Amino acid sequence: MNLLLCGAATANAFDGDKVLGDTVGGTDDAVTLKGVPSRGSCGYLALGEALGNVPVGRHFKTPCAPVWVVYSESHYSVLFALDVGLVEPGAAAPREFDLYYFDGLANQDEEYRLTVDVKPGSDFDVPDPDDASALTPPLDLVIRTKWPGARVDWGDSEPIL
Question: pTM of the entire structure?
Fold first, then answer.
């Protein structure tokens, strides 16, 4: 996946390389974990990050175009925006913007247009992902890995649980 998204066949989604090492008996014993070297054309977001399992770096979260491959619920889908300003380096996200979602496995008949509301300086009530009674759509959790504390409005569409 990394090869297709950023042009480098690396095993991790974090930014750059991480050296894990130790000095044992006066000998350096280290291994380098390869991550994403730079921003790619499109990005990547994962439910695994929301659940605390897979760190995804800023290179994938802020691609050159506002298009993200989403890995959630054991398959890939696509999230995109028409506003290129969402991925401008250093630019603050607008308070409210639309994202479009496409899932090829869902036999999607309707357009999913999600309105994301990011209130500066304040988090909305974000349910605990481990709370089974919360019934938060996994895509909401994925979106919050990029925009922490965001409220996601599914409009007239039924949220995908």
Answer: 0.82
Task: Provide the residue range defining the domain that includes 79.
Answer: 39-153
For residue 24, tell me if it sits in a domain.
no
Nearest one of 147, 149, 136, 1 to 70, comparing CA atoms:
1
Q: Which of 82, 77, 111, 112 is nearest to 94 (CA)?
A: 82
3-class SS of residue 93: coil
Quick: pLDDT tens for 19-36: 888 766 666 778 888 988
CB 61 within 8 A of CB 146: yes
Separation CA 29–CA 26 (nearest Å):
9
* 43 within domain boundaries: yes
Q: What domain count does the chain have?
A: 1
**Vertex 68: Cα angle to 64 and 72 (nearest 5):** 160
pLDDT given at position 37: 87
